[in-house]
């Protein structure tokens, strides 16, 4: 029996390794799934980035032909400015960010960066100039330093740490058992949603792209985490053309323009103050969210006094 138990243990070990390998592959496919048959046009040229101005002109898009998601959307993100997209769940906000990154091709209209249609340039050159902080960051099964350095593999240790500090995750990393060498991901330390998002922000700080897409996490974060992430994002988006996909409204107050999307069309647009005074969809979303936040705060106070 002794003789048998060793190989069985070994088989168990191999089995676990293979299973882990499969989860990694599944994750990879999850990532690839959002990228179907978009291919470079024959003779596609490199995107020539100047100031990094984005223009959506009469954009029509549907994932499947029966159901239009965007029905003629037009807006500009002038170079260095921040535009936020808000609206009810399912309105098509994240779709807009996927289209700018060209995960899908549109069925009508155009999307340009510095006057160049995203369909006319190579995907590599397009994605090189865009930094994406996604809703849900997938971490590699490697050290936290590796995960941050991924934004620019040539970055030095000091640069990695500086990026982590700006992203408000540096202090947290120092408390980990092996600091920057701590293994994270499925096989290592599991980070919370807010921590993962700050790793993604640190990565983006190292990449230093002229254009930034911030797809906010849908899930509610606690107020402190939200403030930390917000101040990290303010630093990265400063003087960069930034498109914010906002699932919460607290982050959009300072945007140069807020676009309110509903059923695939632009229902309202303007600054935070403009939209509040219009007393329409944005104002009602804002009031609802404020009430919800106040209720949460009150609940927390009651719990603390218990
Ligand atoms: P939320 O705030 O809930 O994240 P959203 O405004 O970002 O919503 P999108 O993710 O852009 O919404 O989705 C818009 C619509 O498109 C939704 O009805 C969604 O079900 C649909 N959709 C999203 N991705 C796909 C896909 N890959 N295939 C088919 N339909 C999709």
TrEMBL record:
Coiled coil: none
Domain ABC transporter span(s) in chain numbering: 54-288
Transmembrane segment boundaries: 1-15
Location(s), subcellular: Cell membrane
Family: Belongs to the ABC transporter superfamily.
UniProt protein name: ABC transporter ATP-binding protein/permease
Shown stretch of the complete protein: 311 to 616 of 629
């Amino acid at each position: 029996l002794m003789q048998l138990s060793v190989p069985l243990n070994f088989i168990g070990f191999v089995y676990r390794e293979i299973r882990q390998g499969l989860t990694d592959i599944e994750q990879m496919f999850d990532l690839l799934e959002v990228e179907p048959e978009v291919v470079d046009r024959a003779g596609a040229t490199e995107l020539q980035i100047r100031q990094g101005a984005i223009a959506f002109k009469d954009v029509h898009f549907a994932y499947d032909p029966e159901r239009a998601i965007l029905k003629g959307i037009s807006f500009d993100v002038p170079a260095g400015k921040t535009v936020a997209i808000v609206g009810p769940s399912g309105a098509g906000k994240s779709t807009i960010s996927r289209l700018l990154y060209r995960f899908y091709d549109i069925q009508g209209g155009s999307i340009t960066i510095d006057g160049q249609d995203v369909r006319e340039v190579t995907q590599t050159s397009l994605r090189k100039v865009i930094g994406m902080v996604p809703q849900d960051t997938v971490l590699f099964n490697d050290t936290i330093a590796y995960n941050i350095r991924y934004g620019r593999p040539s970055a030095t240790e000091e640069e990695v740490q500086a990026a982590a500090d700006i992203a408000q995750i540096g202090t947290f990393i120092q408390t980990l058992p092996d600091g920057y060498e701590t293994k994270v991901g499925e096989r290592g330390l599991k980070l919370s949603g807010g921590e993962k998002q700050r790793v993604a922000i640190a990565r983006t700080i190292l990449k230093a792209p002229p254009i930034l897409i911030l797809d906010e996490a849908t899930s509610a974060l606690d107020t402190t985490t939200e403030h930390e992430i917000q101040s990290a994002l303010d630093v990265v988006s400063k003087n960069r053309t930034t498109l914010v996909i906002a699932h919460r409204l607290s982050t959009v107050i300072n945007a140069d323009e807020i676009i309110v999307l509903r059923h695939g069309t632009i229902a309202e647009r303007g600054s935070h103050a403009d939209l509040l005074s219009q007393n329409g969809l944005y104002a009602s979303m804002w009031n609802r969210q404020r009430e919800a936040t106040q209720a949460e705060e009150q609940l927390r106070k009651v719990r603390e006094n218990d």
